[in-house]
Request: fold
Amino acid sequence: MVLAACFGLTLTMGETFWSFGVFFKPLQQTFGWSRAAVSSIFTAFLFGYAISVITTGRLVDRGNPKPVLLGSALLIVTGLCGSSLSAAPSHFRISLFMVGLGSGATWSVPNTVVQRWFHGKRGAGMALGLVTSGVGLGALIFAPLINFLIQHYGWRTTFLILAILFGAIVGLATLVLKAAPEPATGGPAPAISTGSPAVGWRIPAQPRWYASWAFAAFTFVSVVGIFTFQMLSTHLVAHATDLGISPSAAAAALGLMGGFSIPGRLLAGFLSARWGWCRLLSLAYFGTAAAMACLWWLKDIWMLYVFALSYGIFHGARVSAQVGAIPEIFGLNSLGVLIGITAAAGQMIGALAPYSAGALFDATGSYSLVFILIVPVLALAGVVASWLKPAAAGPA
Reply:
């Protein structure tokens, strides 16, 4: 039941993170704004998310996740309803910022809870893979659904429908979700090789992890992956329709990108026991760089779907490996806040991705420069990830 609840929470991220690209052109056509202006709306969401994911990660480290989720759901539902009434960029920024303030809990809470429930148990990697795959399934469901709703009911009504769906899913998940129990007194604590003894049921992180080379390197790697995803989720549909591909086909490709991430997430969970999360993270970045290079030659719809397949698989593996590598490198003691800090750093810098890509398009009339610049940065992140080592291997 806990695993299903965590899966349901990450499922909603397909509604928040993967949906704005479908709203992009309808908003631009309604108001006549530049792409940079439309992109700035999603940037406000990402800033709100960055604040939220740190805060909720810290709160879930301390105890009961239920009030955290209920407060977050209230913020998101209110923000989505506000978006349906917005008529200016500033109105949208406020509403989407509020949605972002609530959305951090849909990532920090389920990933922290599931790793504590399953840590030291057989299939722990698969449990994490299943939970993170909820995002991919959410994208597969919500991207085409949102496109359908916009075409038939308009974007304002669509925002209201999303608010109802989100409130229902989070409400059901909150009913069954609870913090992991501590082992019985005197029982053995779960073991992990961190180079230091276990204390209670939690494992101490490396001393001063926030000042370590490993933390700086891991944060850089996280930032690059999140920056790339934010740029794609906002601009892929617009880029495809610029090339003559229909909005429905482009939205379907965005959804398939999330759908194809599911096998990547599950495969990473299966291979984690054999290869380790750090090695999987490095391989995922090299694969993502190769997939992004395909966008340089994108012309036809079949090429768009090939990109969705290749990027989706490696993106899914990257997301699972990025979360799984945190306890592998730093231990479990500050797991929630570490998930929050690394995700927030990525979102704060990644928040610039939608706006910067839109501004480059406005200046050059093309996304080509955006795609050219991002590929070597992804490859560099793959190199840095290959240097990260589990705690058992000694200091990095």
